[in-house]
Design brief:
This protein has 6 helices and 11 strands. The protein is of the alpha/beta class. It is globular.
């Protein structure tokens, strides 16, 4: 299996008034290669976050099909979506949403406990923080970390349960260019060393050459 996610003619529409709809996505057919870094590029309003939410089962398309590991998932119940997200997917958001009174270590370990993870939580937590270069900062609280370090904690939290795919929605939007590049390099290293599939959205053209696959969106269409 070369592709972990595929879509066939996926469209998404939202009501905008009396019987009218706005199409945020129009007939999107894409393939997300397994174990690679894929970037959705586009300006604000291009549809990239809408597409990511559908791939991550946070939303359902108006029409079209979505396949995860060659299985069509559109007919899944909400409860099945939740299980798929919990076991196979990780999420990194623009707002890192760390728990402020917990250290970097505690934020990651707490996420593992919520996942129902068994085994040595301590070892896995340390492993993930080392993977993102925070082995020496794991006892610091979020407010004692820089913006880039906080985002690294969020990445460690997202990969802790060994997901097959990580979705990162504008993870560098609130960071300066140099720090944003460091974050994408962390993604690159995770793909290369751990074989994780990572899908991220960005409007930053300076990050493109690190990606394995790029889809550019404009007005809800692939261009």
């Amino acid at each position: 299996m070369e592709n972990i996610i595929e879509t066939e003619k996926v469209s998404q529409a939202f009501p905008v008034g009396a019987g009218e709809e706005f199409y945020a996505l129009k007939d999107i057919s894409i393939r997300i290669p397994m174990g690679k870094l894929t970037i959705f590029r586009g300006r604000s309003g291009s549809g990239k976050t809408t597409l990511m939410n559908i791939l991550g089962t946070l939303d359902r398309p108006k029409s079209g099909k979505v396949f995860f590991e060659e299985k069509e998932i559109g007919s899944m119940k909400d409860s099945e979506y939740e299980i798929l997200r919990r076991n196979e997917m990780g999420f990194v958001f623009q707002s890192v949403a760390l728990i402020p009174m917990m250290s970097a270590y505690e934020n990651v370990e707490f996420a593992l406990r919520l996942q129902g993870r068994k085994g040595d939580l301590k070892e896995r937590t340390k492993e993930c923080l080392n993977l993102v270069g925070l082995g020496k900062r794991m006892r610091h609280l979020p407010q004692e970390l820089s913006g880039g370090e906080q985002q690294r904690v969020a990445i460690a939290r997202a990969i802790a349960h060994n997901p097959k795919v990580v979705f990162a929605d504008e993870p560098t939007a609130e960071l300066d260019t140099a720090t944003g590049l460091q974050i994408v390099k962390v993604f690159r290293e995770l793909v290369d060393s751990e074989g994780i599939t990572i899908i991220m959205t960005t409007h930053d053209t300076g990050l493109m050459e690190i990606a394995d696959c790029i889809y550019e969106l404009e007005d809800g269409e692939i261009v």
